[in-house]
């Protein structure tokens, strides 16, 4: 083989081998130049776009950063302003506070406490609450004042109220009526009242009775012994009479209304009054017999089975037994439309509030609600106003003021000298006399001492049996016994005839209790004396309450009492009465009643907690 042929076999020429990968076809220079140009120009545009995008992004980032910075600055500026404002407010407040007297500051604290304790549930039934029932108008009544009274002007009504020192609040208050004869009361009752020397209405009656006859809810406040019982019993008797006339009651029907009392003694006394007036009515053949039921602890219900076997018109009750009877369905409140609470401030405050709510939940229809008392602190009045429907407030004198027919004597008697001085004190007037003490043991000690000294004395307090309590009251009322020694039980509402003298052996902490206690004398327009022993053991605050009460009633203030300074006056605060208990000598922040309430609530709370284990 020639050398030329062998070279050709080992290394073939690239131009001729078409299967070789490295083969590149020939492209003319002009075409290649154009293609390069196109490639370059296309590369240039993309880079421009990328670049523009990049620039825009950078720009946006810068703007965002600027905005962020601006926001931070604004926030800081605002914070600085708020801080500044807060500092300014603080400075202003400090300056204002500096200007305020200690008294004004104390008043602010009192206001805060009052606001805090104000939040109470309205006195409406759970059923009404659940169904969202809200009555807006008072019950309709068929009674109307006589035409000539309706035709009087509002000024004439107001003049009459002024004449009797009656203050009223409320919408469309019914007119006052000066004579029982104009109230359309049935003749037999009028005659009976007359025979008991009840001839003209007292101020609470002349405004309270027309308002109640008109179907209005009432908050009635008038001093002790001013005839409130008739003012709330008579409207119920009239209502029962009207219902009975429409359709006579048969077994299982009724009652039309209920009167609630805080103690058995008071319930018993009110029941006797209602019975007397109903009997007076039934003695006249023109009128039907109205049946009333006394419903309170301590009496066997079978004693009353004869009443339960007929229709019942009126129930007078203490809360506990009433709830028991309602739960046992001995009668129902399906058609009950009158609820009255005597000594109402006590009923809807300490101790009974839950019972009252429970009782209200048995009502199935709208009712007329009446609250009566001699003492009614502002806090309770406000609460009551909220719970009633367009109530009429009838106020005779300041709520919680003492009866002006009572001569109040306050004496400083050392603790160890009290018993001996008591004997001397008993000589001031002829019997009957009531002696009050706050403490059950002290009541027993006093009675024992008096019995040893030959004084005919009986006693009542919460630890005595019902029989003992009833015996004591009967013996004292009938005049068999000259002196009754009692704890607070007997102070509220009991109407003993002709009591000449009340001796308060231990001054109660709450001034309301004092007002009720001295109110056992000076009733029904008669005068009486109240002697109160105080000494080192009587707290200054109680002495202050007493001092202001004496001043208000225009009574002599003994020097030792006059010398008790009021810290509020020293601090320059206002001397308004306490809204919780009505005491004039202290503010809410040191109210003994509030302390007592809190103590009870704490105790109740502990009991509940204890019970859950
Ligand atoms: N219009 C009247 N005229 C004369 N005496 C009356 C009149 N109304 C009631 N009384 C008599 O006055 C006395 C006191 O009445 P009542 O017990 O109703 O007073 P009160 O205002 O309820 O007192 P308290 O706040 O102490 O319960 C009773 O003996 C009663 O018979």
From TrEMBL:
Residues 209-394 form the Helicase ATP-binding domain. Keywords: ATP-binding, Helicase, Hydrolase, Metal-binding, Nucleotide-binding, RNA-binding, Zinc, Zinc-finger. Residues 64-79 have a biased composition (Basic and acidic residues). Its EC number is 3.6.4.13. It comes from the Eukaryota. GO terms for molecular function: ATP binding; hydrolase activity; RNA binding; RNA helicase activity; zinc ion binding. A motif (Q motif) lies at residues 178-206. Residues 1-25, 41-79 are annotated as: Disordered. GO terms for cellular component: cytoplasm. InterPro entries: DEAD/DEAH_box_helicase_dom, Helicase_ATP-bd, Helicase_C-like, P-loop_NTPase, RNA_helicase_DEAD_Q_motif. Pfam families: DEAD, Helicase_C. SUPFAM superfamilies: P-loop containing nucleoside triphosphate hydrolases. Coiled coil: none annotated. CDD domains: SF2_C_DEAD (cd18787). Residues 178-206 form the DEAD-box RNA helicase Q domain. Residues 405-568 form the Helicase C-terminal domain. It catalyses: ATP + H2O = ADP + phosphate + H(+). This is RNA helicase.
């Amino acid at each position: 083989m020639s050398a030329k042929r062998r070279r050709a076999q080992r290394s073939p020429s690239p131009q001729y081998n078409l299967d070789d990968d490295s083969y590149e076809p020939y492209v003319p220079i002009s075409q290649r130049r154009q293609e390069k140009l196109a490639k370059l120009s296309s590369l240039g545009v993309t880079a421009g776009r990328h670049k523009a995008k990049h620039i825009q992004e950078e720009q946006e980032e810068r703007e965002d950063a600027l905005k962020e910075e601006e926001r931070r600055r604004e926030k800081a500026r605002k914070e600085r302003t708020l801080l500044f404002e807060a500092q300014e407010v603080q400075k202003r407040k400090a300056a204002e506070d500096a200007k305020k007297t200690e008294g004004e500051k104390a008043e602010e604290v009192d206001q805060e406490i009052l606001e805090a304790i104000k939040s109470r549930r309205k006195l409406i039934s759970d059923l009404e609450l659940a169904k969202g029932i809200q009555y807006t108008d008072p019950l309709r009544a068929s009674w109307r004042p006589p035409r000539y009274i309706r035709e009087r002007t509002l000024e004439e009504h107001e003049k009459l109220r002024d004449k009797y020192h009656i203050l009223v609040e409320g919408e469309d208050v019914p007119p006052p009526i000066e004579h029982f004869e104009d109230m359309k009361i049935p003749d037999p009752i009028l005659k009976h009242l007359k025979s008991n020397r009840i001839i003209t209405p007292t101020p609470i009656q002349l405004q309270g009775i027309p308002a109640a006859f008109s179907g209005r809810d009432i908050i009635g406040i008038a001093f002790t012994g001013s005839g409130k019982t008739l003012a709330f019993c008579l409207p119920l008797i009239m209502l029962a009479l009207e219902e009975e006339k429409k359709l006579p009651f048969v077994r299982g029907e009724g009652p039309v209304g209920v009167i609630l009392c805080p103690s058995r003694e008071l319930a018993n006394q009110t029941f006797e009054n209602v019975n007397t007036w109903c009997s007076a009515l039934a003695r006249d053949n023109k009128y039907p017999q109205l049946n009333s039921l006394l419903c309170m602890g301590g009496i066997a219900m079978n004693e009353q089975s004869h009443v339960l076997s007929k229709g019942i018109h009126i129930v007078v009750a203490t809360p506990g037994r009433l709830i028991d009877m309602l739960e046992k369905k001995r009668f129902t409140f399906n058609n009950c439309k009158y609820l009255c609470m005597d000594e109402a401030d006590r009923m809807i405050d300490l101790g009974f509030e839950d019972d009252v709510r429970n009782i209200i939940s048995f009502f199935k229809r709208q009712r007329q609600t009446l609250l009566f008392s001699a003492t009614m602190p502002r806090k309770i009045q406000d609460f009551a106003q909220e719970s009633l429907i367009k109530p009429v407030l009838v106020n005779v004198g300041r709520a919680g003021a003492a009866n002006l027919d009572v001569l109040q004597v306050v004496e400083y008697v050392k603790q160890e000298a009290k018993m001996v001085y008591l004997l001397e004190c008993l000589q001031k007037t002829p019997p009957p006399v009531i002696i009050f003490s706050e403490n059950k043991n002290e009541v027993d000690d006093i009675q024992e001492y008096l019995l040893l000294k030959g004084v005919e004395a009986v006693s009542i307090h919460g630890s005595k049996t019902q029989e003992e309590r009833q015996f004591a009251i009967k013996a004292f009322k009938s005049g068999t016994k000259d002196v009754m020694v009692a704890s607070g039980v007997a102070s509220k509402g009991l109407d003993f005839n002709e009591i000449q003298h009340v001796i308060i052996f231990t001054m109660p902490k709450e001034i309301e209790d004092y007002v009720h206690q001295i109110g056992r004398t000076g009733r029904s327009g008669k005068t009486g004396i109240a002697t109160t022993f105080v000494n080192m053991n009587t707290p200054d605050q109680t002495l202050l309450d007493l001092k202001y009460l004496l001043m208000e009633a225009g009574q002599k203030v003994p020097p030792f009492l006059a010398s008790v300074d009021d810290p509020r006056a020293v601090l320059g605060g206002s001397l308004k009465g306490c809204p919780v208990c009505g005491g004039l000598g202290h503010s809410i922040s040191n109210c003994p009643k509030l302390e007592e309430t809190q103590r009870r609530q704490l105790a109740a709370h502990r009991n509940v907690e204890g019970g859950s284990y």
